[in-house]
Amino acid sequence: MFEFWYTLAGYITIEKESMAQTAPLPTLSIKSILKWALVFALLALGSIVAFGFTPRDSGLSIEQRRVTEKIDISEWRAPPTVPYRKFQREIVIKRGDTLTSLLEQLRIDDTDLKRFVLTSKEIKSTFKLKIGDAIRATVDNTGHAYNLTLLPKNSQPVRISPTTTGYAITEVPTTKKLTFGTGVVRNSLFGSFDENGIPEELAAQMAEIFSSEIDFNRDIRSGDRFTLVYSSEYLDDAFVSTGTIEAAEFTNKGETFQAFLFVAPETGEKGYYTRDGKNVKRSFLRSPLKFSRITSGFSKGRLHPVLKKWRAHKGVDYGAPTGTPIMATGKGVVKYLGRKGGYGRFIEIRHANGISTRYAHLSRYAKRLKKGSSVSQGQIIGYVGKSGLATGPHLHYEFLANGTQINPTKAVMPPGPSITKSLKGVFQTQIEKNTTLLDTLNRRYASSK
Ligand SMILES: [Zn+2]
Fold this sequence. Notes:
Layout: E1 10-12, H1 30-44, E2 47-52, E3 66-72, E4 86-92, H2 99-105, H3 111-119, H4 123-126, E5 134-140, E6 145-151, E7 158-162, E8 167-171, E9 175-184, H5 189-195, H6 201-209, E10 225-235, E11 238-252, E12 255-263, E13 270-273, E14 307-310, E15 316-319, E16 325-327, E17 332-339, E18 345-350, E19 355-362, E20 364-365, E21 374-375, E22 380-383, E23 394-401, E24 404-406, H7 424-448
Antiparallel strand pairs: 1-9, 2-3, 4-5, 5-6, 6-7, 7-8, 9-10, 10-11, 11-12, 12-13, 14-15, 15-23, 16-22, 17-18, 17-21, 18-19, 19-23, 20-22, 23-24
């Protein structure tokens, strides 16, 4: 058996045996909600219950759920120091690595496997080594390998495993697990993700989700709190990659925002909504600067790199390092792209309803962007610089309604499209599990305070 451990509050296994990426999540019935309630009651007592259900052939209407294990999460669990008889090793492929050198690094001493790797004709076309991808082996302490698995970044794992006649190379499906994490911001958002063992890339994902409501470059305060429910891909019970945020809550300066992922059944289009189906994205973002590690964080000792100022010249100035990506704050069409006097390198975007936005002093434009290009909300259009009349690198941003500049940091932006009436039912079913989870995690947090 393999064992692995968490620095997180815990994890919940969903769809234990299923081909996670393609199988739809089973719907919840009233009966199952009661079961969940029971499970959550246990959870509230300080233990976490991991449970899986196995959608058999017919799937959706018949659903089985059983409690498979109880993991105590009330205390930090240190990694075991005694090696298991059978365990996994994983390394990242570097420049110059060959299959033979990788076998050595994985401490595999298995003559049959070595011979197969050296002589197989199909191995070059099916087991392609790429720098940065990971390779994992299930081995025992004698050096015998049970399998060798390549974990490419953007496709399914490929595995070499023994058969009765030799070895076979096959694609193996990963399993999706829902994981949750919660934390309080102390010094910076990224820092608080690190401290709580939540993958950093989710900080950027969360900032993106709430970017209409919160300016993550400016508005984050010590004491802000977040809870996330997100999917991760696992293989043989060991982590492979982080997936998507399925539900998120962020409390910023005492105000709480929630978002739930909805995947439209026919188009597959993804979006985040409040639990009553309102779009969390407004038609304009709070800030044109992409939230990044460079611009994130705050400390008492040094000045925040992003300082926004509403100036007499009717724009907002964002001081930020040269090269910081600039996003189109709303969907629209590029009306102007080029040098323009004191503005330096300049972009103007025309949006619906008589609104336009302007971005000045850029160091460069996004590749292939030109006058007439359509841009989506959040699309990178250029990078911060100090071209034109600028003493230091900053973005000068203007927001115009019918030709007149207004202060975008004060304006109330219209919301994006809500869930339509015809999709309301599907929406409620899809988010039900995650609303229950988020509520439970919050109750747990409240009672632990
Ligand atoms: Zn300015």
